[in-house]
Amino acid sequence: MTNIAMMLISAMILVESQGDNGAINGASWGPLQITADYVIDVNRLCGTSYKHSQVFDREIAIEIMTKYMSIYATKEKLGHEPTWENIARIHRKGPKGWCNPASYSYWLRVKKEMKKIKKE
After folding, report:
1. Are the beta carbons of 98 and 68 closer than 8 angstroms?
2. For 76-98, what is each residue's pLDDT tens digit?
3. What global pTM score does this model have?
4. Structural domains of the chain ordered from first start
């Protein structure tokens, strides 16, 4: 994984859970605040057998998110090469999240965290 990809994931973790692997916000769990439906989607489309309870493990949460993006953040789905913004917005609002206006403020928060991380 590239440094920029890790910076994006790190920023998303900070925005989603302030870096807390044990974070729970309703149906969203773990450092990336992944829902059971997100996990079900990955399992169904990738032939995996993750359990929602596994998203508290940061490495597994990142694996699940990466698989989700391999399904939805693709040139074929978006009509263009996916950007970091597309990835963040899809993570936040699902497969069509990249064009959902409700996900834009999330992207701005992630982008701000990425700039902070880059300065460190």
Report:
1. no
2. 999 999 999 999 999 999 999 99
3. 0.94
4. 3-119 (1.10.530.10)
